[in-house]
């Protein structure tokens, strides 16, 4: 009877997928996952490729739209909400609306909960309606969730109650909403705040400080002017294939630096459009650009690539206007324009100068009567006054941004001539997105990825996924296993990333004007499959002939005074060859065969000297075949290299991790954090015995005994690692005693491979946490800080000092056995159980 009376959890109908980011770390995800499970939700594990199970999810939890499956989720109409949606759903006792919790910055009133005070009814309805349309929510009464009160004075009871009980609630004039609506951007509330709004006390002609440019970091120019060297490991390219177009005009040194950063971070640089995930070019034209854009690759310019490297986090190239390739010719209507700027400074001014030039207009530093437009952040300046006298159009920056985004000059409306009295519009610069549909229509029409058939296929997949997910939930499964291996789902998951090759287009970089031979309608995929090996063979033959060519050229330069040979011999040979070709009869068949055999032998000999491309990079751990036998190890490694298998150290990028069984060693856990395929080391033995490279898929590591022992599933750990991309312990502080068993270096390697902040704790200055209070930390609950320790007497002395240091710094001390770190990194899930506290593992 009790079971029948038990109510389902608030989130019992939800299948949630989390997106890790700098604003939603694995630590926060771990805590939220525990909360939503307690309230009936099911948390979806990532696919084996580390991707979100979009067809299965009812909601995607993300604090940003900057993740590479965002567009796919939107196409399949899966709600994307920020983490506040969870808190408010549980607080309300039912699933909250989706719109107010959108992470899309274009929903300018997302996270605004508004109530109105002494506002006329007509104005109240208008303000509330527009606020909710742009992501906000209405609160009829003042509550703890209310963020804004719209009022004309402080006399209303709601305003007085807010001052007394809710000091964080902002009381603003209705003019703030009016200006935000007109601009379509959310400007700072500061000048509109009651009881003493600057909006009423100062005029529009009074000076306004130029604000910093919040959205222009790394996006002021399409061509970055900084060199990226010596940066920490960049994980944003993990499992990504990047193609650098020839129109970037990179010198050899810079290309090598960029290639090194990508490969060191687990990515790959390729030279075939069909093979890449990311295509980097300068201009939005040419067959390679068109092909990549139609196939829905991530197409961006060098500034976008640098932004990814510097911030180490993925963002869409459509997000910032100068992160997308620029047009080679002026956009429609811009060719004869002369544009000047006023009231913008710093990065904002540089950004607008570059945007004007990229659009095809002429930027002028000074303004004359010949100018056609003046772009200004406020409508008060000497240039503004002169513009009125010379009948020059005065507009805000939204006009040039939206004209560039829509690829043609926009007619000047009231929105582009609106200037809030106490606001410098530089604070909302750089927030305009590209219009992808316009770009597609103008620069890469065609492709079937956006066709009605494709969208219907996605929606059907979504419906099937939801049904399967709910079935799995009823059956108690952690996730829908069928979706990971089903060919139909695999094809659907790839749909947004690639489409069928278009006939007759280039598939190799534009080096000169070489056009591949063969039938016009051959599918490029067939050509590209063998392009790498063919290129390697051609280079190998060329390198083999290089000494002979050099010797021939050297002999030709010798003078006639020396022994016979040199130039005289070369000239005579060339002469005889030309005479033979023109007058001699065809050679006898036996002579021709002898020549062919000789050439064939020589080619085979030269070809054997070159090595094939590396197809597999493998890290070996726990391997016993070469124990105490260095000569055998060297010989076997040479054989493997001849098969295209390279054995690498654990600190280098790898595709495969090979071990006889699951082990919690430094090498195994360090490599696991990158999400490689984990195979049995029997694969190496089998290849050496067979004398050829076998299929590694037949040697996937299976270790049921250790999976049961540690309570994990290896395939799930690999999938999580690919989703985490080395950020499992991002921003998590982990201290370690200097005298810990097995040495702190091993634990440091494992922790830092997973993104942790690692320090040695000796209870001295320099290793202490700065004392703070809850108020200084914004009232947030204390975050955990860990100390790895073993059970020696010297280490136990430090435990009390560590606890005091952590509590003084408003952090929660967790003194744990090393098994906690090994378990977390093997699971690739940040969890904590009191049984791993040092006091429970090492009782006195």
From TrEMBL:
Origin superkingdom: Eukaryota
- UniProt protein name: BRCT domain-containing protein
| Coiled-coil regions listed in the entry | none
From the UniProt entry, list the residue stretches annotated as the region Disordered.
446-539, 553-608
Query: Which regions are flagged for Basic residues bias?
Result: 599-608
**Compositional bias ranges of the Polar residues kind:** 523-534
- Annotated BRCT domain residues: 6-103, 104-194, 329-406
Q: Where is the composition biased (Basic and acidic residues)?
A: 568-578
Q: Which InterPro entries match?
A: BRCT_dom, BRCT_dom_sf, CellCycle_DNARepair_Reg
Q: Which GO terms describe its biological process?
A: DNA double-strand break attachment to nuclear envelope; double-strand break repair
Matching entries from SUPFAM superfamilies are given as: BRCT domain
Q: Return any one Pfam family short name.
A: BRCT_2
